[in-house]
Structure formats: C-alpha cells, structure tokens
Amino acid sequence: MAIPLLTYSPSSQNQRVAAYEVPGDEQPRIFTTDNLLSSADMDVLIAAAYRQIFNEQQMTVSSRQKTLESQLKAGQITVRDFIRGLATSDIFRTRNYDTNNNYRFVQMCLQRILGREVYNEREKLAWSTVLATKGLKGFIDDLLASEEYMSNFGYSTVPFQRRRILPQRDRGELPFARMARYDSYYRDQLPPGSIYRFYDTVKPFNLLTFLRETDLTPAVGVLLLFVGIATITLLISYGLNPAA
Q: Is 91 found in the same domain as 103?
C-alpha cells in the first residue's frame, strides 16, 4: 500500500505571492495550445516542452519522442499528457532518474514540472517517499495531478519557472536550466589528463611567489639585448646627424 504524501510547510517564495505584473521581455514566455495559430507554433511549443523537461544539455536527437509529438499535433493528447510522456520516457529515466539519488531527482522534477524550487527538506522527503513507494510513473502522475500543477498550467500550458524575476527587484533568481559546475569530488572521478581536472592545478596569483619561483635569466637577457639595440640605434642616429 502506498504511503500518502507527508505534510510539509510551504516557505516564502516568489510564486506564492500574488501581484499584478505587466508582461515584458524579462517575463517567462508562456507556451499553450489555447492560442496556437499555425503548425509552426506547435513545433515551437514542443521544443519548449523538451527544453523544460530535458534542459538544453539533454535536447538531443535520441531524446525525441516522435510518437508523442504526432499525438499532440493530432489533438489526441494534451500538453499535460505530453509532459507526462517525456518525464516517464526511457531516455529521461536513464539520464536523470538512474544517475541521481531520490532527493536530487525530486528537486529536479519539482523545478521542471511545478516550476519552482523545493520549499524545504521536509517536502523533499515527502516526495521522495512517494517516489520510493509508487515508482517513477506514480510520482510523475501525482505531480501532474496536484492542485498546484493544475491551477498554474492545467492541461494546455507547458510548465515554466514561475516568477523568476520580480519588477521591484534588480536581480532575479537563477534559472533552473543552467550548465552544471562540477566541484573537486566529481572532477576526481574523471580519468587523469581530462581537461576538467586542469582547474585543480590552478593557484591564485601571488607576485612575490611568482618572482621567487620564476627564472628571470632569459628575461634579463632579453632586456639587456633590447637596451643594447636601443643604444646602438641612438649612436648611429647621432653619428649620421651630429648637428642634432
């Protein structure tokens, strides 16, 4: 028997605060089938769905779900069903579920499907319990059936990061879809000679250390050569024009 979702307290996040905002270039673009005008618009919506669920790093040819795309274009499934298909696909499982622990995977899915960060560790634990008891498909189904998802995206809108930028703030929250930055623990797992391990050998610049450890003999030789050439040039110039 599946364990019901544990209770957790929402924390204060931008998307929980109601406000009137004028749409602008910095606001997220909303992709929905409610106002599609052409087949090209549908292709843009499908690309936005892939970008939301797989992120830029995983938008490869092997990630495409052509059957789902055809069903969506034919009106046989909704955008919500398309999102479910992407999030439960084998390629999504292989690249995200199989390569992360349950807590990290829950955080990723809340970011990509609900469009927000997890509230706290309690919520992460609650959804991890659902994932452990119901499996990947049951977990995704519960997210898509939640009141939060339905009230914000419904059946026809591609999820997006909600209220990342607020008009009264000069800096918005970081987007969820950004390139990973590997710390030393992960870089140590890479084979020797990898370009990503180069950064471990870089030290902060220190002038005194540089002067102490650097062999200045070649530099002094070049400097003396330059002074000699300059001196000879001046002597020759003076010899050709002694009146100057």
A: yes
